[in-house]
Design a protein that fits this description.
- The complex is a heterodimer of chains A (103) and B (185).
- In chain A, 46% of the residues lie in helices and 0% in strands.
- Chain A is mostly helical and 103 residues long.
- Chain B is 69% helix and 0% strand.
- Chain B has eight helices and no strands.
- The chains are: A mainly alpha (103), B mainly alpha (185).
- The interface between A and B is medium-sized, with 28 and 40 residues.
């Protein structure tokens, strides 16, 4: 096959469209508006007004700041005089000697 | 409520109505372009079932993200074929094609059974040669046979310059011819 014969043959083979789309495909594609929701990304902040977002953000910052201040007051980062740290809740903490009751 | 168009709407007009969620405009675009989208996809992925999946994805994108088409930048068909080519090339990278079904039609008017058989053999050889082409050369060749696409539009559909597109075409045709000669056709 010469170059021009090849080009002519390729043209006859490549130019016509492939077989028509199947009925099933046509129906699936036409149904897309009914079966696919819009591709809008979920925007959490769009659920709230600006002032609500600012208020919530401020509250979160304030609580983080409070935690830093309270935590910074003790060397371990924990308030050791917290009543929960004491042994008034049985089984929660163990003083020397207490553990023996369990062994 | 969408105003009816008094003239035959262009694809660009229909696309802008799809942005406004006009289902009738979407259906018209499907009827106009589904066949061509399947043809392009099929000749790139070389398998009918995968080509139909590509076509479905293309129209899902058209419905879900119609604003991705920018009318001032390109014709609607250029954008649509670009989406098709990109999706088809993604499929080629992911899936290793086994049974080839490139969707070539047998030329009409072949008188003898012998000629029909030879034509069929050539088409099979062409399908194999197409499969061995680098995917971008394959895509360039497929687009070059779409009547409604100029060279500039075909290059835009591939996202490359006209010069790069012509280079892909020359190399693709040469490789195809050599493959067919190698197969003794």
């Amino acid at each position: 096959m010469t170059g021009s014969e090849f080009d002519r043959w390729l043209d006859t083979v490549m130019r016509p469209p492939a077989a028509a789309p199947s009925r099933d495909l046509l129906e699936r594609v036409l149904a897309i508006p009914h079966t696919h929701v819009d591709d809008s990304r979920f925007d959490f902040f769009s659920l709230f007004n600006g002032w609500q977002t600012a208020l919530a953000g401020g509250a979160i910052c304030a609580s983080l700041l409070a935690g830093l201040i309270v935590g910074g007051a003790s060397p371990t980062g924990m308030a050791t005089d917290d009543p929960l740290w004491e042994t008034d809740i049985p089984g929660l903490t163990y003083s020397p000697g207490e553990l023996e009751d369990w062994s | 409520m969408h105003q009816p168009l008094m003239h035959e709407p262009t694809c660009e007009e229909l696309a802008s109505r799809v942005v406004q969620r006009d289902r009738t405009a979407y259906a018209l675009l499907v009827q106009r372009h589904l066949g061509r989208v399947v043809t392009i996809a099929q000749r790139i992925v070389l398998r009918r079932a995968e080509a139909e999946d590509v076509a479905q994805d293309v129209f899902i994108k058209l419905w879900q993200q119609p604003q991705a088409y920018l009318p001032h930048k390109a014709k609607f068909t250029t954008w649509l074929y670009r989406v098709t080519v990109n999706r088809a090339l993604d499929t080629v990278r992911k899936v290793r094609t086994t049974a080839l079904d490139p969707g070539f039609d047998m030329p009409d008017g072949l008188p003898s059974a012998q000629e029909k058989m030879e034509s069929q053999q050539r088409q099979q050889a062409l399908a194999r040669a197409m499969q061995d082409l680098p995917p971008r050369q394959r895509a360039a060749l497929v687009l070059s046979y779409q009547d409604e696409l100029s060279d500039v539009q075909a290059a835009e559909s591939l996202g490359i310059s006209v010069k790069a597109y012509e280079s892909l075409l020359v190399r693709g045709r040469k490789a195809l011819r050599e493959a067919l000669i190698h197969d003794g056709l």
